[in-house]
Design brief:
Layout lengths: L1 H7 L7 E4 L13 H7 L7 H15 L8 H15 L3 H12 L4 H4 L6 E6 L7 H10 L4 E5 L11 H22 L4
Parallel strand pairs: 1-2, 2-3
């Protein structure tokens, strides 16, 4: 979504952070068999079973190098289920991803500070997708994190924040250089 907004509304975008994503080129970023199996595993019929389903999926697609807070996943899943469960949502998201097509040539036109973060152990979007994104965008900074899968481990939050803030500051510094002195 952030890539598409950056392409379509470039005048409104000062910086881009692309996390666990790909260019849309089907030659890169493809899911590993275990990631694909988790993506297409049938959801559960009730909140309790859904919580266990979510824990099992996060064990598969999450970060093997970082602790998995199973109780937090259960609580978040139960709250989400009670707030409004829509099993068709995953299918719609997948359809949107496939419909967005290959953005490589459009990404090459971006001229904003860009940060690409990807897990080296992401089974849902192979790291090649993040690496291709960074190659496509001139001057992009890529950070590949060993042990990170397709989630945002709490232990990495400070690093994510620091890197995203630094990327935004690069945009702010660039905008200051472009503004007329006054």
């Amino acid at each position: 979504i952030a890539q598409v907004i950056s392409i379509r509304e470039s005048e409104r975008v000062l910086s881009l952070s692309s996390i666990m994503s790909t260019t849309g080129n089907r030659a890169v970023g493809q899911p590993h068999p275990e990631g694909l199996a988790a993506l297409f595993s049938p959801p559960a019929p009730n909140p309790e079973a859904m919580a266990e389903w979510a824990v099992a999926n996060w064990r598969t697609i999450g970060s093997p190098g970082f602790p998995l807070d199973e109780e937090a996943i259960r609580r978040r899943t139960m709250a989400s289920f009670e707030r409004g469960y829509s099993p068709d949502g995953v299918a719609r998201q997948l359809a949107a991803v496939l419909a967005s097509g290959d953005r490589t040539s459009q990404l090459a036109k971006l001229r904003v500070p860009t940060l690409v973060i990807h897990g080296a152990d992401d089974p849902l979007i192979d790291v090649s997708g993040g690496e291709a994104t960074a190659r496509a965008i001139p001057g992009a900074k890529v950070i590949v994190i060993p042990g990170m899968g397709h989630d945002l481990p709490r232990a990495l939050w400070p690093r994510f924040v620091d890197e995203i803030v630094a990327n935004a500051e690069r945009a702010q510094a660039g905008a200051a250089h472009e503004s007329p002195a006054g």
